[in-house]
Amino acid sequence: MNIQVIKQAILSSPLERIPEKMRTLLANELPFVDVHTHLFNYKDVPDKFLGVRFPMHANILQWTENILDAIIPWDAEDSLSLLADFIDEINSEHSEEVFQHLCSFYRDDVIFGVLTMDMSIGIEGNVMHEWEMQMEIIKQLRDKHPTRIVPFAAIDPRREDALNKFHQAFAADGPYQFAGLKIYPSLGYVPSHPRMMQMLEICEEKQIPVIAHCSGASVKASSNVLTVEYTELDQDGQQVHKSNEVVLETPQDYSDTFNDPIHWTTVLEAYPNLKLNLAHFGGADQWNAYQVSTIHDTWVDTILGFMEKYPHVYADFSYTMAFPELGAALQTMMTQNKTVRHRTLFGSDYYMLLQEGKYQRMLDDFAGKMGADYMYQIGVHNTHRFLFGIEKEVTTEKKHVLTSKKV
Q1: What are the strands, taking DSSP E only, across 121-236?
Q2: What is the C-alpha separation between 394 and 186, in angstroms, rounded?
Q3: What Pfam families is this protein classified in (predicted)?
Q4: Cβ pair 215, 279 in contact under 8 A
């Protein structure tokens, strides 16, 4: 599909691409936003999603959950019990169930950025719900809860019809009218893939927010030999498309080859006003390395450099929020660095981080480390700017923050 045709079919303002009820809410309220959540279940992902071929069948998942939960019955947060919690979510019959679980931890007015999955190109195995079915399920859920859900469409650029799917996802007369684009590079592509560059050109022009996985590669392509298509800019700024074959042996290989934020350099040089959230802020391993690095060569350093150079580069702390000492380090960085203070987003990565602990405890611990002012900053002020282009200052008296229903 012609890129100009797609541009003409997409409304220009982020506020025009959300339900009218949410627009009305945002005009009068300042709801907290968890910008990075998942509602998918076992029907939405290939049966090699967990890295080994595991039949995505409700009865088998339930049996596995029961076994794991029973091994150490006196400890609710041992690693096997936590894996059982994760399996309990992925074994939900419908995304509505996952959504209700997620809502139970928050105030009743919190908005959720919901990220869909497009894994069938990169990961082996059967998928019960292909792309259209998953999009339709989330669309229906958004229509049922129009003030709560901001959906992101995942599109693998290796799809021959990727641009058509982009049109379906975002066009005003299309079937879905989603709000943002989700990118998961370790499935086997880099951000500068030629088709992805076309999609990102539109995202920049139309202010479509982009969320990209930017941490380790626990979820990765099944193949260890991949042809990687990418783009370079010549001395005149023209895009030159290239490709090369890579051999990958470890999860770190996939992480370095695809998820390293340095791979966004070409994209940001070409589209400097792109609204981009480098999710997880590099991840726990990179934050631990950043704490001791003296040469400033970590992914955290790269992301900070992008924030300083480009006006719309953000990073959420999703999943990474599970580690209290890193939450404290982020709070210190926000205090010392105004740019970081205004470009960090609150995201949880629910329910993926259930593998690290009980969600209520992790949420409360993180909110406690941040404090009310910074929770407002990352969960209201910054997220509203990133998702909706809204810049609002409020008085302390009117300020409210998330947080869980127990806080």
Answers
A1: 149-154, 180-183, 210-213, 225-233
A2: 40
A3: Amidohydro_2
A4: yes
Q: Could you say which residues of the chain have pLDDT below 70? A: 50-84, 393-407
The candidate with the shortest Cα–Cα distance to 190, out of 225, 151, 157, is 157
- Cα–Cα distance list, 405 to 38, 106, 110, 142 (Å): 20, 5, 11, 22
- What is residue 403's predicted lDDT score, i.e. its pLDDT? 53
Q: What residue spans of 2-124 are helical by DSSP H?
A: 3-9, 20-28, 58-71, 79-90, 95-103
Q: What is the pLDDT of residues 44-92, one digit of tens each?
A: 888 777 654 344 454 544 545 454 544 545 445 656 666 667 777 877 8
Q: What three-state secondary structure class fits 88? A: helix
Instruction: Give whole-number Cα distances, 331 to 357, 379, 401, in Å.
Output: 21, 14, 16
Q: Which long-range contacts (CB under 8 A, 24 or more apart) does 64-71 make?
A: 65/91
Question: Which residue ranges make up each domain of the chain?
Answer: 3-35+94-398
- Between the alpha carbon of residue 71 and those of residues 4, 75, 181, 358, the distances in Å are 58, 9, 40, 18
Q: Which CATH architecture has domain 3-35+94-398?
A: Alpha-Beta Barrel (3.20)
Count of beta carbons in the 10 Å neighbourhood of residue 213: 25
Give the other-Cβ count within 10 Å of 8's Cβ: 10
How does pLDDT run across 276-286, given as a tens digit for each residue? 999 999 999 99
